[in-house]
Amino acid sequence: MGDIRQSLLPRDVLSAAKELLYHLDIYICNLVQSGRQPPQVDSKTLELVEEFILHAPKDRNTPARRMSALQELQLLEIMCSCFQEQSRDAVRQLMFAALFNLQGNQADESRMALLGKLVSMAIAVGRVPILECAATWLQRTHRVYCVRLAQVLVDDYCSMVPGSVPTLQNIHSASPRFCCQFITAVTTLYDFTSEELTPPLELLQMIVSWIQDDPHLVLITFLNSPISGSQPITSLDVTPLGGLVRWCIKAPLVYRRDKKQALTNGSSENEPEVGPLFSALHLSVLQVLMLLPNILNEKGLFGRLALLQMESLAALTSDLSRLLDQADKHTHTSSADTLALSQLALDRLAQALQVAMASGALLCSREDLRAICSRLPHNNLLQLVLFGPVMYYNNIHTSPLAYSPHAAHSPIAPLPALPTHRAHTPHAPLAPHPSSHPQYPAQPFMTGMPFPFRPSH
Q: What digits encode the pLDDT tens for the residues 119-164?
């Protein structure tokens, strides 16, 4: 394609970009049809992309070509149409890679800027092929750039344009694969290290509703991708489970800290309560972990692939220890509240560790866990996990594993509801102690959940 440069130079910036996209589509179609494995776009073509689409100057003596805002919008519409009209996924993926795979040069900033605008537009107008290509890009790109793309989308749909959250929420049905990668990216971005890195309420509500409606969503990348023995350390995790666990455990202490800072700065106390959201998210994460034994067994990966990494858990327990130390400094003002929130965070850590180990998502010994939890304060449940027996949930029945990236998956059946108790009348005289309590029936026992022991009656 290097010989078309001279024909592109006299054209205006939009016309040249459109013409190059047309030739790029033909070139990649021929490349795929040739059967060359793996198909690879040559460097001359990538240079044309940088010069006429990304507008990076070819050399210092050549002035950079610039588009007006209207021309840039028209280019984005042309690109959306180009990907929508191309029916072959292999061609689309290779074309997307030619446009947006990072090359380690000065054009990468232009790539990221154009990519953010293109994906944002694809979400707005429902261009699924672009979202599918972006999902692949998120799997293969350094996490630093993945979180930059996630930040652009969160800013566009949760901050800049009021009322646009429902548009972003539609990606769950439009492209579950992209939705899964988006969750992984935002849980990596928002690590609760500062108020700015705490997820917006709208984003939190959206993610909780996604996972409650479709718990398999967080496993889509894992289920539909060939998994090698080890993921590149620079890429996003293969599932968002690690980030979601971090959110649930750190949330009680982080939101208390941020609320105190807001009150100190004179902000309104009428902030929405996020506690129930994180409780629901924590339950959903545990339910997803319970799906893993059969999935890992069917893939032949049980005991061989850890979806939760010890390094991440060590960093989490270190952060948790620091947050607990900070909370202890304020015990003179609200000791009961601080203790309750601290124990809630530790309870969630213990629950996540136990279920993750039992389901095969976490591969480590009790000694390893005791080492990374050694600086944490006492918690009864955590002590049981660190020193008690492990039950491996290999006999839990889960649904079949043939998940299409475009199909909506059946949600996990909800837990049995506890019976509603009749309200007590204040100061009513106590009735004689009966032999049984029919008004308080026992909590239903879940037959799919094995326990190491049951109390004797």
A: 999 999 999 999 999 999 999 999 999 999 999 999 999 988 888 9
Q: How many CA atoms lie within 13 A of 42 on its CB side?
A: 7
CA distances from 12 to 55, 65, 68, 352 (A): 12, 9, 11, 58
Taking the CB of residue 276, how many other CB atoms lie within 10 A of it?
9
**Residues contacting residue 312 through CB under 8 Å, at least 6 positions apart:** 237, 242, 246
Q: Measure the CA angle with vertex 238, ends 404 and 232; round to 5°.
A: 135
Can you tell me the distance from the alpha carbon of 86 to that of 212, in angstroms, rounded to the nearest whole number? 34
Calculated CA dihedral for residues 321, 323, 328, 334, nearest 10 degrees: -140
| DSSP assignment string, 399-450 | ------TTSPPPPPPPPPPPPPPPPPPTTPPPPP--S--TTSPPPPP-TT--
Measuring CA to CA, which residue among 41, 47, 43, 49 is closest to residue 20?
A: 49
**Following CA atoms 315, 143, 210, 248 in sequence, which dihedral angle do they give, to the nearest 10 degrees?**
10
- Token pair listed for 276: 């129930």
Cα–Cα distances (Å) from 301 to 297, 306, 402, 405, in that order, read: 6, 9, 16, 21
Distance separating alpha carbons of residues 362 and 353, to the nearest angstrom: 8
pTM summary value: 0.82
Gap between the Cα atoms of 195 and 197, Å rounded? 5
The one-letter code for the residue type at 250 is K
DSSP assignment of 210-261, as one string? HHHH-GGGGGHHHHTS---SS--TTSPPSSSHHHHHHHHHHHHHHHHHHHHH
Residue pLDDT, tens place only, 224-266:
887 655 567 789 999 999 999 999 999 999 987 555 555 444 4
Q: Nearest-5° angle of CA 251, CA 202, CA 135?
A: 95
